[in-house]
Amino acid sequence: MDAPRSLWLQEALRLEEGGDAPELVEDIEADVCIVGGGYTGLWTALCVKELEPDASVVLIDEDICGGGPSGRNGGFALSWWPKIETLKKRFGSEEALRLVKASEDAIAEIGAFCRREGIDAHFHQGGWLWTATSPAQVGSWEGAVAVAESYGERPFELLSADEVQARTGSPVHLGAAFEASAATVQPALLARGLRRVALERGVQIHERTAMVDLDRESGVVRTPSGLVRAGAIVLALNAWAIRIRELSRALVAVSSDVVATAPMPQKLEESGWTAGEAISNCRLMVHYYRTTRDGRVAFGRGGGRLAFGGRVNSNFDFSEAQTAGLKEDLAHLVPASEGVEITNAWGGPIDRTTDGLPFAGRLPGRVPVVYGTGYSGNGVAPSLTFGKILASSALGRSDEWSEAGLNRGIPARFPPEPVRFLGGLVVREAVRRKEGREDRGLTCDPVTGAVAGLAPQGFFRVKR
Fold this sequence. Notes:
The protein has helices at 7-14, 39-51, 84-91, 93-117, 142-150, 161-168, 187-200, 265-271, 320-333, 382-394, 419-439, 446-452, and strands spanning 27-35, 57-60, 76-77, 128-131, 156-159, 176-179, 183-184, 204-206, 213-215, 220-223, 226-235, 252-261, 278-281, 287-291, 297-306, 342-352, 359-362, 369-373. With 464 residues, the protein is of the alpha/beta class.
């Protein structure tokens, strides 16, 4: 049985006329072939057409555009300000500031693009609450705040427990950093809107068309019933990039699971959570949640399941056990949801890097094969920046995007299997126990705390 589609994708597909783009059943040629029909692939296609309108662009996806993480994520369009310390460490002071400013700009660009192209993706710039839901999390944002202030920037407003509780209607919150630039979108409506605009710009899209072989020397992407011979190839694969030999140890695939309530606008009104802020806490296995235009709450958690090696498969699909846990967490963190029906539940893989930042680069071979991956749960806005990077790289340009610090290849690797998988299991269990104790207001034992300290090396560090 197929995994359930997200609430977002079900809504988006109901509003569309026409069916899937045709499967590729012949041999064709293109200037650029893009593999992957999510945000990264679609933004790249649009950026290529903007830079070179006459370029022929073919995009293939083994499912439908938006069928992967782009159609089932939480819909948080966030900047990289929470990752400014990591950016500065990896790229230096000047490039870190340039990239974080670009990430801020990307949020506004998405809103402007939707307005200009008539895409009603429910774009709402209501800001983001980065909250503490246990005493151990209080002040987790202090490092990012300090580095931002060292640049003379103040992207965060610090809120007391009383202030954040009034804004969220939840007594669980003990403080927060509020970032006003953040937005929420209906993620599948954005993905399908990008698809529509790409088709209008002349991008040739083939859905239900998997890449079964990649010839880097001749520039050929083979599919079950045809092939694309291209001058450059872009791999926009998200968690599936783990199947590429050179990228396999740069990523770990983990699950992210979401539930959505029935519409509950009156309960939200009574609770005080009415401004549409996106919310996530400072746990390593992060909770993230937001409201929708029709008054639902969509509530997710990252880090539930792991992949061994490149086996990104049905292990990441909908899970009854994960859903049961999410229902309990939802009632605890959003008291207004108590007694409200859960109407939808879904899940799938996301790609994690060692430090939570994505990266781009080029694979070895005669024909340019470029890639972008590793969003680590924050890809809605950064995928636009990566679309610019990959488009410039595929076209062989030398500009601010192709020369960006994020386009220098793999920054770090995880241990080989089976160490990575077994270590991930140990860390996941340690983190689960540690954060369970913290959620109950208990002090962590030293052994568990020491093991959980491995998380910043990349297994479950979900701090954005």
